[in-house]
Each structure stands twice: as structure tokens, then as C-alpha cells.
Amino acid sequence: MKRSLSALLLSLAAMTVFAQKEKYLGVAIFNTQSDLPFGKFSGMFSEIFHPGAEVTWGTNFRIKKKHDWFWDARVAYFFHRFVQHGIPVYANIGYRYKFNKRFAADLALGAGYMHSIPATGKLKLNENGDYENNKGIGRMQANACFGMGAGYLLNPQNVKPVKLFIVYQQRLQMPFVKSYVPILPYNSFMIGFSKSIAGKK
């Protein structure tokens, strides 16, 4: 898994050496629900809130009039009540179609590391027959994701424009609990903004 992730990150970095480049930073907040992929949408707004936040650094490495190809690195945190605190660290590669100067839609695939910290107490029986804390610092996990989004540029004429965006993301966390839930799927709805920090070259 580590070799595959390293190869992905190296490939993404190599692609940015060529063609036009435009770097950006993004921030988003989101709600996440555990369910089968594409299994939940309305529940994002009517059921228990499992909040999260994410920071993104990315590059549009191929820019055309109607199309962009991009990759980004992301760090997030979310709280799933009674289950875990999740800290995903991952990379995305994606495609963006621009309907006009302001509106665009995109698709992205990603993979990376996720640190899982139990959200409730975890105890074990010691040699004296007493229970003691066994929560530790959490578990190392892998995560893979797929996202569909839409964006709106507030000031497309600006050299460093600001974009508002929404994303519906599917995430797979693995191996969650090997014995009975080897893969834990999540559905997330994100809203945020990004800003260009370096123009096209």
C-alpha cells in the first residue's frame, strides 16, 4: 500500500512539471454519514451531524479554455459520534469542465492515509484482573475516495480568483475492523472556497 501511494504522489508531482500551472489553497467544512457509496444524500441535512473540516493545496497542471486537469493534497478532520475521530491525509487527481467563465463541474479520485482515534473509551483486562485504558494513539488506516463537485468563480477577471464550491464525496476507510467491518464507507457533503495563490505560467 505504501509503495502504491508513493508511486501515485510521485506521478502527480511529475505531471506538474509540464504545461501551464495554477496553484490554489482551499478550505471546506462538511458533514459525513456512514453508508454504502451513494447511499445517503438527504440524510446529510436531516440526520445526526458528524462535522468535519478540510484544507487543500492544489495545482491546475493542464489548463484549456473548457477543461482543466488538477491534482491536490488534502488534510481533513471529522468526528463520527460514538465511533471515531478521523484524520485523512490524501491526494486527489481530477478533471474539471468549464461551462463558462464562472461555472464549472469536476470529478476527482483520491487515495492516502487515514488516522483513526476511537471516540469512546477502550479498555482491556490486565494481569491483576483490572480494566485499564487501551485507547492508545489510534490506528493507521488507508482511505480511497471519489468526489463530484461544482464551483462558481466570484471574480473570474482577477489574476487570483476566489471560487465557491460544493462536493459530494464517497470515502472508503480500510481495514476498519477486519473481523466484521473490513471497509467502512462514508458519504460526505462539503462546502467551501478556494483561492489562486500563483497564476498561470
Description of the structure:
By secondary structure, the protein is mainly beta. The chain has one domain (2-198): Porin. The chain is built from 2 helices and 10 strands. The protein has an 8-stranded antiparallel β-barrel with strand order 1-2-3-4-5-8-9-10. The protein has a two-stranded antiparallel ribbon with strand order 6-7. A hairpin with a 4-residue loop joins strand 4 and strand 5 (103-118). The longest helix is centred in the N-terminal third of the chain and has 14 residues, at 2-15. It is elongated. The relative contact order is 0.21. Residues 15-19 have low confidence and may be disordered.
Order of helices and strands: HEHEEEEEEEEE
Name the average pLDDT: 85
Decide which structural class fits the backbone.
mainly beta
Using the coordinates shown, work out and report the CATH topology: Porin
Radius of gyration computed on alpha carbons: 19 Å
Number of helices: 2
The figure for the number of domains is 1
The end-to-end distance, rounded to whole angstroms, is: 34 Å
- Identify the CATH class: Mainly Beta
Oligomeric state of shown chains: single chain
Which bin fits the share of residues in helices? under 10%
**Do you know the CATH architecture?**
Beta Barrel
**Proportion of β residues?**
over 45%
Q: How many runs of DSSP E, i.e. beta strands?
A: 10
List keywords for this structure.
Porin; eight-stranded antiparallel β-barrel; 10 strands; mainly beta; 201 residues; two-stranded antiparallel sheet; elongated; single chain
